[in-house]
Design goal:
Distance between the termini: 102 Å
Strand content: 5-15%
CATH superfamily of the largest domain: Vaccinia Virus protein VP39
Helix content: 55-70%
Radius of gyration: 30 Å
């Protein structure tokens, strides 16, 4: 056997001297990486959509690039090159690519818009777009830890250093997550965030080059392939356990983010807090694991015990999310200050998920110690272990979002997580017990092999028994959490659950009040109901554009909801095709039947086509044009919904309108404030300067509004509209309007609330929501606890005047409409003086 040449370690005293600086550099690197991740995900979701499939492709590509980088660097870059120089070059290249990705995204968007679509081909194209944009920079990210690992030796002390570097990287990632989510993207935009991240990369690169010049490095001998293969044969259980741990960690993050967003409200800030707490736990665990790896002679046993404790920690989280935290007496409307709410959200997240995340964090340094062999190239060790963990993470994230949650539900998904932790514990503890099992073989002679297998199975069964019991006892998610979300503590307990299900993108519930009204809830908030104010709004979104158009043939409806808006078009005789874009397949399948009377059986109507896709992605890629586009998206404070309120989105819609076409957009006044509403309206009017506002009130006070605009110019003759509604073929339309309180044409048109030209003083300096800042979701996420709809409504209507250029005709209905609008305006102007 050829004796391996000794691998010379670096000067440890010198390395120890610069450890604090290296920790700081790795923290800065982690900070920039998280800023990039958040920015790139927002940019690419504008291109490929935000459906579960698109996000799966995006996440898989991102983590796949990191996996490739960690595997490739030890095999491509020689150990003779100074590790700090390699690290500096990686950071420098990453900063350049970060800016290039920002600059090149509009070109990618334009190319994809011409050829993108749905189906298998569309998914492949999305994967290609993500690969082109993400694989190069993420491969550089993945290569940084293996690069710096070569500066230490593969000894307990060296492995503990690697764990500390990993922990420092995570600490920086926590800061980057909070910095991007709470400041950079809220106050500035994606460009500023990218430039800051690139500046951090440049600073790290410069410091690394300087440090490389100051520190000696004795090149190592290349590790022979035979030695590498032998190391793998003895350590494969560690690599498998690392992969299983990564799978359970990312699957748990997907599951728990879904459940915590129900509890806290699905704002961008909630997702930032959840991610930050997850990373904090990983960082704490990594630090503790590094210390244990340095001092313990039994890292495999520690890793196995860590996985066994992880099963208990997962059970803890499941019980807290189902039986405890949702019922804490916290009323979100008691304080309008978002910072007070954020403190409560942070405490709840820490209480729920910190134990498990600490154990996942400790697993990585313990796995490095368990898999290390004397004389092994630390770069190959770290690269292989990191790659195994990342491959597991990819499988876990995709499996949870695309299969476990929609097919099994979150309860069974968490049972699977406990099972994965048990598998890791069995692998490690049985692996550690090999000497004992080998002694059984020799003790029982010819039956030794059977006895050894039997002993291993008994040991595995003993290890698996406690996790199996915990998995069996896990509670399911309460339907009240899906229905009422963060307002659950104020729920009175008299409602009836008609349906609850967990889909690929969202959790859905249908309830009934003691008075018989039905509510449709999605992800912890009410989306539609059969109550008077909601029915009126849904009818207005359908009937207003259909009546004002005169003879619409094709309609695009953004968001299925309860199906009432889309169903309102079906009673118009000229309608030939209604296309509905819905992100969650569970909604039409499970919800529509509960509102079949109100939505006219829209889910099964032959004129209706339901497209399961992100509406923005569909509008970006479809070649079709429509007479009407009506958009009833989810509240703008929900993460991702702001993409359906941007100037660029409205421009896309404008290009998809036929000549003479109309567009309507829903805007809520509740759970909002003045600046949020002004931003939504001003952004719409920026693209549609002839836009108008139509108001829907609740008991005489403001509730929500409909923005409506014609592709060209809009005129309405009340008398002509009355004559049309008297025709037999429109009898169903008249009845549909009467059912929600519009007994006359005048009562329908009296909902007019103003137009762009009149509201320009009120909208002055309003923030325009654009793709590159998505400012609305950050602005709205701060104000969801405010209930100021009445004041917003009154302030907006104070600018209203009777628009002679909009309402034409000289009949008595036109005069009655003028009197109705001018009287209400006059009353509002006098009210403050009286």
């Amino acid at each position: 056997m050829t004796q391996q040449k000794p691998i010379a370690p670096p000067a440890l005293s010198t390395a120890h001297r610069f450890l604090p600086l290296l920790m700081l550099l790795f923290a800065a690197s982690g900070c920039s990486a998280l800023v990039y991740e958040i920015v790139w995900f927002q940019l690419l979701q504008l291109v490929i959509g935000s459906s579960a499939i698109s996000l799966g492709v995006l996440l898989g590509t991102f983590m796949g690039g990191m996996c490739l980088g960690s595997l490739a660097l030890p095999r491509v870059v020689s150990v003779r090159v100074h590790p700090l120089r390699v690290y500096a070059l990686l950071e420098l290249a990453l900063g350049i690519m970060g800016i290039a990705a920002l600059m090149g995204m509009p070109l990618v968007d334009a190319i994809y818009a011409r050829s993108g679509g749905s189906g298998p081909g569309g998914i492949l194209l999305r994967g290609l777009v993500c690969a082109v944009c993400l694989l190069p920079p993420t491969a550089l990210m993945g290569a940084t830890l293996p690069a710096i690992a070569r500066w230490v030796e593969s000894s307990p002390r060296g492995v503990s250093w690697l764990g500390l570097f990993y922990g420092g990287n995570i600490a920086g990632a926590v800061f980057g997550c909070l910095l991007a989510g709470f400041y950079l993207l809220r106050v500035h935009d994606m460009a500023i965030a990218t430039y800051l991240a690139a500046a951090l990369n440049g600073t790290v690169a410069l410091a690394s080059f300087t440090l490389a010049a100051l520190t000696p490095y004795r090149p190592r001998a290349e590790e022979p392939a035979a030695e590498s293969s032998a190391a793998w044969q003895g350590s494969w259980p560690v690599y498998v356990t690392t992969a299983v741990s990564g799978a359970s960690a990312l699957a748990a993050e997907v599951v728990w983010t879904r459940l915590l967003s129900l509890l806290l409200g699905a704002t961008v800030y909630t997702f930032s807090i959840i991610l930050a707490v997850f990373l904090v736990g990983l960082g704490i665990g990594s630090g503790v694991g590094s210390m244990l790896a340095r001092t313990s002679p039994r890292p495999r046993l520690l890793l196995g015990c860590c996985q066994l404790l992880l099963a208990a920690a997962i059970a803890w989280t499941a019980f807290m999310l189902a039986r405890s935290v949702p019922y804490w007496p916290i009323n979100p409307y008691l304080s309008a200050s978002p910072w007070f709410t954020f403190q409560l959200d942070l405490v709840r997240c820490l209480w729920v998920i910190l134990p498990a995340t600490c154990l996942w964090g400790a697993s990585f340094p313990l796995a490095l110690a368990a898999g290390a062999n004397k004389g092994q190239d630390p770069g190959r060790l770290v690269g292989g272990m990191y790659a195994a963990n990342t491959v597991g993470a990819i499988l876990g994230a995709l499996g949870a979002s695309l299969f476990l949650i929609p097919r099994l539900g979150t309860q069974m998904a968490q049972q699977v997580l406990i099972g994965l932790a048990a598998v890791g514990a069995i692998l490690m503890i049985v692996s550690y017990s090999r000497p004992f099992l080998a002694s059984i073989t020799s003790a029982y002679g010819p039956f030794g092999a059977i006895a050894r297998v039997g002993g291993a199975l008994v040991l595995a069964a003993c290890i698996a028994a406690p996790p199996a019991y915990l998995a069996k006892m896990l509670p399911g998610i309460p339907w009240e959490l899906v229905a009422f979300g963060r307002t659950l503590p104020s729920y009175e307990g008299k409602w009836k659950n008609l349906f609850m299900g967990e889909g690929m993108n969202s959790s859905v519930a249908v309830t009934e009040t003691p008075t018989g009204a039905r509510y449709f809830h999605i992800s912890g908030k009410t989306e539609a109901s059969s109550e008077a104010q909601d029915m009126r709004l849904q009818r207005m979104l359908g009937h207003l554009p259909a009546l004002f158009h005169g003879n619409p043939k094709s309609v695009l409806v953004v968001g299925f909801g309860a199906g009432v808006t889309a169903g309102s078009f079906l009673v118009h005789p000229g309608i030939e095709k209604v296309v509905i874009c819905e992100l969650e397949p569970l909604v039409p399948r499970a919800v529509a039947a509960h509102f079949a009377k109100e939505n006219y059986g829209v889910a099964t109507d032959p004129h209706v086509e339901i497209v399961y896709d992100d509406a923005r992605h569909y509008i970006l890629t479809t070649p079709q044009k429509f007479d009407i586009i009506t958009s009833d998206p989810i509240h703008p404070w929900v993460k991702g919904a702001a993409t359906l309120y941007t100037k660029e989105y409205f421009e896309l819609c404008k290009r998809r309108l036929n000549p003479g076409g109309l567009i309507t957009q829903w805007v809520p006044l509740y759970e909002s404030d003045r600046d949020v509403v002004r931003s939504e309206i001003a952004t719409f009017f920026e693209v549609f300067p002839g836009g108008t506002i139509w108001c829907n009130d609740q008991n005489g006070s403001g509730y929500d509004i409909v923005l409506l605009s014609h592709a060209d110019s809009l005129t309405i003759d009340p008398d002509e509209l009355f004559e049309r509604l008297k025709r037999p073929e429109l009898a169903a339309v008249a009845e549909s309007l009467e059912n929600v309180g519009f007994q006359t044409v005048v009562s329908l048109l009296a909902t007019y609330g103003g137009q762009a030209s009149d509201l320009s003083p009120w909208l002055e300096n309003a923030l325009i929501n654009r793709d590159r800042n998505l400012r609305l979701q950050y602005l709205a996420g701060m104000e969801l606890n405010k209930m100021d709809s009445g004041n917003i409504h009154e302030e907006m209507l104070s600018y209203r005047r009777f628009p002679d250029e909009l309402f034409t005709g000289s009949g008595w209905r036109s005069r009655a409409l003028r009197i109705a609008l001018e009287h209400s305006t006059s009353a509002r102007q006098k009210a403050p003086q009286e």
